[in-house]
Design goal:
CATH class of the domain at 53-76 and 241-305 and 316-347: Mainly Beta
Shape: elongated
Structural class: alpha+beta
Distance between the termini: 100 Å
Number of strands: 12
Largest sheet: 6 strands, antiparallel, barrel
Radius of gyration: 49 Å
CATH superfamily of the domain at 53-76 and 241-305 and 316-347: Efflux pump adaptor protein, beta barrel domain
Helix content: 40-55%
Order of helices and strands: HEEEEHHHEEEEEEEE
Strand content: 15-25%
CATH topology of the domain at 53-76 and 241-305 and 316-347: Elongation Factor Tu (Ef-tu), domain 3
Length: 350
Amino acid sequence: MNEQTTPPAPPTPAPVVKERASVGKLIKWGVAAVILLVAIGFAVHYWRLSERFVSTDNAYVNANRIEIAAQVSGPVTAIYVQDQQAVTAGSVLFEIDPQPYRLAFDAAEAQLELAYQTTTQDRAAVAAARAQVVQRSAELHNAQSTEKRAMELTAQRLISKQSAETSQTEAQTAAAAVQAAQANLEQAQGALGKAGAQNAAVRAAAAKLAQANLDLKHTRVTAPANGFIANFGLRPGSMVQSGVPIFTLIGDTEYWVDANFKETELRRIQPGQKARVVVDMYRGHEFSGEVQSLSGGSGQAFSLLPAQNATGNWVKVTQRVPVRVRVLNPDAKLPLRIGTTATVTVEAPE
């Protein structure tokens, strides 16, 4: 009996698998090409931005800081402000005991009155000396007339020669009296000086009175500008010394950022360029800025202990130069604090 064998099944065609593999490779290459193009686009965009903008996060907010110091010394009697309080220009900050300065003012006022009285007396002395000169001049004229008549009568032998000599002596005495009176007049005029308010003694007394009045006014210390009180620790009874800083007033009318750019970036920064300022406290808000000035040296050049590069242990480090960027639109709802950090971006010319 013959056995029948079943023929083997034909193999699965391979072209379908190869076609699927080639499509997968094409998709992978396409995705890779798209990623490469996107990367190139981002790189070109970043390069263009880096050429157009210069940015640094080494920046700190700053404002005008006024050291408040009393102009007279004494104990504090009243305080009208506290730490971190907002003040306006002209508002009273604190008061110093005015009593010693009020007494000094009264004394200076009395001294001025005495100066006027002394001037009046000196004017009277000048008038008296002038009258004496007139009197002595009249006596001299009379004595000279008598001398002349005596000389004529002596020539006619009507009186003795001794009488003529007596008349001559009296005339000489009268002349000396006139000279003495004129000297007294000059002395009185010198003591008087200029008249009225132009008199030296009066002007000196008036200057002392003005200084006493100024010192009395300085017992009330006022704010020189609008701003915020900082570093305040004054208490009633505290002794303050003239010219010694007591606390700080931070002005709120002008803010700027000291941005420390690399020295290699300075060629693209010029005064007047627009800038964007983002303070780290308010990252969601952008302030407008303008470059005001570039420092004349790096921060290291103005440090208390500058580096000694001539010692031999020298490593070249890119220096940073402070650039002052003024904040053009400060917002009272977003108060700026000096010393806080910020990021500054300057738009360089194309």
